[in-house]
Specification:
globular, 178 residues, 39% strand, 6 strands, 6-stranded mixed sheet, single chain, alpha+beta
Length: 178
């Protein structure tokens, strides 16, 4: 018997499925960058959970996985996201006039099958470069864990957890979706 424990390998995912997931994430980024937020919302399930918990700086021995009850920058459902989008459409959102210019870069996409045959677990890295007004620039880097669900033949985002590398934001606002 070997002293090295065997690790369980996730089930293999087809190249076609990986490509479909990549195209989904790239389309999502393009819609966000071009401020087509209503179109972006159609890529989400009705029961979506869009979550970006606050990152606590802890020693390794005191590490604690965030829960939905901890502080969060986003802890949104579909109605919350619709309200955010509607707010930017009012023309009275001072932090979005002039509009923020954003560029989303999605990389390191890894796709795993889940126990639910209609869902996939997707890991990715996100970098969002933001320019506001004439001279404000911000870069946010994060790790995402998504649940994509097939609904009527199409992939849709059912759950997103974003963990940013930054502990403290220097941004005046967070009017960007990661």
């Amino acid at each position: 018997m070997s002293s090295v424990q065997e690790t369980i390998k996730p089930a293999s995912v087809s190249i076609e499925l990986i490509n479909e997931v990549q195209q989904f994430l790239y389309r999502e980024a393009r819609l966000q960058d071009s401020e087509k937020f209503r179109d972006w919302l159609t890529m989400l399930t009705d029961d979506v959970h869009y979550w970006m918990p606050y990152r606590y700086q802890r020693y390794r021995k005191n590490y604690k996985e965030p829960t939905i009850y901890d502080q969060a920058y986003y802890n949104d459902s579909m109605p919350d996201l619709i309200k955010r989008v509607m707010r930017t459409e009012t023309g009275t959102c001072w932090s979005e006039d002039p509009a923020t210019r954003a560029a989303h870069i999605v990389t390191n996409i890894e796709v795993e099958l889940s126990d639910n045959p209609n869902e996939l677990t997707v890991y990715s890295l996100i970098t969002v470069r933001r320019n506001m007004n004439e001279d404000e620039e911000h870069t946010m880097v994060g790790h995402r864990t998504d649940t994509l669900r097939r609904v009527d033949g199409e992939l849709k985002l059912a759950k997103r957890k974003i963990i940013l590398d930054q502990n403290i934001f220097m941004n005046k606002s967070l009017n960007v979706y990661l």
